Amino acid sequence: MLMQPETLPNTIQVLAIPHMLDPTRDRVKLTFLPGQTIAEMVDETLPAARELGPSYIRVTIDGHVVEAEHWHRVRAKAGMHVLIRIVPQGDALKSVLTIALTVAAVAAGQYYALGLLEVLSIGAGVATQAAAAAAITSPILRGGRLMSNGFESARDT
Is the pTM of this model over 0.70? Predict the structure, then answer.
């Protein structure tokens, strides 16, 4: 049973975060009476999210993850806090990070290319400036890929 306002005693506070990349956008804060299952809370709080499938939804009760196969049985107790969050799956987050890293690497390469040429006492022609930019961009991209692969490996464990 959905309730408002949030100040009632013996209730469960539910915070739903529907956006993968911006946790401050369109937050949903609701208060429930004890007795509803996590599945019911997810359906009432983020009805469109169920279409994504449970692998895209992470639910925690007071910081403890509740696996999707248990949502229909698990009920939060009064005073507990439930967090429902949409999480990226597969390569979605990796793709976004790769794009952001590429933009940052190219920008850094362009910004620091002239400085690198000046330090090396090389003339700043178009070809040498492009080579210097590539010399700066390439290691940034390689390092970023190694880091993103490390995130992927850490998530799989």
Answer: no
